[in-house]
């Protein structure tokens, strides 16, 4: 191969090379890295403590919340506790809102409420300002929950947005949208679906998905994942038939 051909091939390969990872770092990631390193330098926490918290945040999920709702369906006294003292009920399923990590890291959420669905009221949660979410009991929020499309439209056109998730509610069911804020977190307690009478707590917990705890889906026998199987494109109400 001549030197000319070698250079040509090298240039060709270079053109096909993906951009370096550093080019894909967002402004938020740069800010997080800078703030994290500054906090470690100032002694607010150590790199080891940051690693432990990161691992904790990545492994939490909606299982405690599903367990809480399943137990409430079966135990009227526990249901009353969940609705009146939700932080105490959370402890019963392993979530201590004052120290959720278990290694001395307190939650900065000072209030938590559970919204009960009824035959005439359906609840759904949103954070119109940013993406506030009850992470200690539901885990990290799904990506769509944090998008402006969901946050802005749910508070204005809740029935249409729910329909885009495949949830069509009767006209006689009122939709109540609860907007979270910096210190107050919410989750939904959906109604126990027909056909699950006599089920155990474990069996019920399996069908209580993250989406039903947010309010964009309903628990159904046989549905044990959070995959949305029926969706349609978002349409502005003025264009909807």
TrEMBL record:
Keywords on record: Hydrolase, Metal-binding
Family of this protein: Belongs to the nitrile hydratase subunit alpha family.
NCBIfam families found in the cross-reference section: thiocyan_alph
Name under which the protein is recorded: Thiocyanate hydrolase subunit gamma
Top-level taxon of origin: Bacteria
Domain called Nitrile hydratase alpha/Thiocyanate hydrolase gamma: residue spans: 27-217
EC number: 3.5.5.8
GO molecular function, one term: thiocyanate hydrolase activity
InterPro entries per record: CN_Hdrase_a/SCN_Hdrase_g_sf (IPR036648), CN_Hdrtase_a/SCN_Hdrlase_g (IPR004232), CN_Hdrtase_asu/SCN_Hdrlase_gsu (IPR023900), Thiocyan_Hydrolase_gsu (IPR023901)
Gene: scnC
